[in-house]
Amino acid sequence: MIDLEVVSNDRYASTNVADDFEKVLSLMTIKEGLNITNDFGAALKAAISGVLSLMLSFGINAETNDRPAGFVNVATFAPEIMLSIRYASADNFLGRVVEGYEAPSCWLVMPAAEALKQAHLVLEAQGLGLIVFDCYRPQRAVQDFVSWALTKEASQKAAYFPRVPKSELFAKGYIARHSSHSRGATVDVGIVRSASETKASIEANHEASQASVCQLHASQDQRAGMLDFGSSYDCFDVISHTKHPTISAGAKANRELLVETMSAVGFSNYQLEWWHFTLDAEPYPTVYFDFPVLAQ
Asked: What was the pLDDT predicted at 212?
């Protein structure tokens, strides 16, 4: 899902509004003889500044192919964390590779990568670990989701939104024009068992998993050692709400463990998606980056 969040200006934005504003004022002074030092000029400048500030409150896209130096590759930084970057494959609700995902890589700003590693180490002491489904997401990928949502294509409906008409994905908030993932400090994660415990747990959880919606990938997830969370990743359904009341006791406990573990290292959960977490102290809370996801 792509969540809509309020954002504003940053040095990696595609336009420097402050500089442009000064240029406009200079042109007005030259061409119209406007004295911006008088009361009228000052009032005009304040009014325009207010309008620009309001515009900035809705965010600026950083439309560039250049990745900022503060981003790190999680596969290199924390190779012990399992990755399953599904938007770089056909294993997602589009049924194809998503625009901007040129490699199945997880890129995050350093503070988010450090916190993610801490969470994994906490789980590792319990014979568990993190599995990551998505990290930084280019704005072009978000736009790809939006474009798809406006079509009638629904080949993956049974797996990802069996109970929601595609025409309602926007209204219900499952698709939006911006995502916190594009800021580099949001991750989609689950919990997996250690390799030694995975095999014994598969049969025990198979029956409970098959009883719920969005379980087409249940067997695949269980082979990877993933705990039962009551729905598969990216399920557009109320059952994915973190505190949904009808999931099994085991799934509820697993969701609580994930939230507690991630919260302890500074992440907050998005209540409509049990897998979605954003770093509270994200360094770029105001920008949607658009560089592609590359291997290096």
From this structure: 62
